[in-house]
Amino acid sequence: MSEPTVSLREETPQDHAAIREVNRLAFGGEGEARLVDQLRADGFVIASLVAVEGVQVVGHILFSQVFIESGSGLIGAAALAPMAVRPERQRRGIGSALVRYGLEVCGQRGASIVIVLGHPGYYPRFGFSSQLAKRLRSPFADHPDFTAEAWMALELVPGALDGVAGTVRFPDAFNLLS
After folding, report:
1. Which residues is 83 bridged to in the sheet?
2. Domain of residue 21, CATH code
3. Coil, strand, or helix at residue 171?
4. Rounded mean pLDDT, 114-141
5. In whole angstroms, what is the distance from residue 53 CA to residue 2 CA?
6. N or C: which end of the chain has fewer CB within 10 A?
7. Does the structure show a pLDDT above 50 at 1?
8. pLDDT tens by residue, 79-117
9. Is the pLDDT of residue 72 over 90?
10. Percentage of residues in the chain with pLDDT exceeding 70?
């Protein structure tokens, strides 16, 4: 028996409840579901994409607008957070497909830099690097779970981070996760 086909697409308003459920199940709580709702309500979403099997939403990824506050002003970037796949559908390539598709969409929408605070064993396969994020201060650096290896950046436009140093400013909605 073959695996069901997964399609990737932009979210629709009809997907919102399913997206909340995917995030609740994947993260074991309400924080990420509230984060997605708040980023959407506040207008910070660059891309909110779903993975659908049949008619069921089995995965979700969100990219939101952030800014790097540097000595030469504000530089726009995208933050990848959260990315979630229903637990029973994990480890089947759905998350990887969402990340790849999401990075493509962000590039098409003009993003040149993407930031993630994520698993250092997972995100480098897409080109994310803690080395690229070294000169970018994280507002989460004081969090007990923060590690420098988990703080990563990706250049969608080669050289986009050349000479860039500063603090990444996330929307207030990210305070819902603390």
Report:
1. 61
2. 3.40.630.30
3. coil
4. 95
5. 13
6. N
7. no
8. 999 999 999 999 999 999 999 999 999 999 999 999 999
9. no
10. 97
Residue 51 has pLDDT above 90, yes or no: yes
DSSP 8-state class, residue 174: G
Q: Is 178 domain-assigned? A: no
| Segment holding 65, helix H or strand E | strand 56-70
Instruction: For the beta carbon of residue 85, count every other beta carbon within 10 angstroms.
Output: 24
In this structure, is residue 143 part of a structural domain? yes
In a domain, 83, yes or no: yes
Supply φ then ψ for residue 15, to 5 degrees. -85, -10
Can you tell me the distance from the alpha carbon of 120 to that of 108, in angstroms, rounded to the nearest whole number?
26
**Residues 139, 164, 46: CA angle, nearest 5 degrees:** 65
Domains identified in the chain, total number: 1
- Look up the pTM and report it: 0.94
Number of Cβ within a 10 Å radius of residue 66:
23
- Letter for the amino acid at 63? F
Query: In this predicted structure, what is the pLDDT of residue 178?
Result: 58
User: In sequence order, what DSSP letters do the residues of 68-136 get, joined into one string?
Assistant: EEETTEEEEEEEEEEEEE-GGG-SSSHHHHHHHHHHHHHHHTT--EEEEE--TTTGGGGT-BTTTTTTE
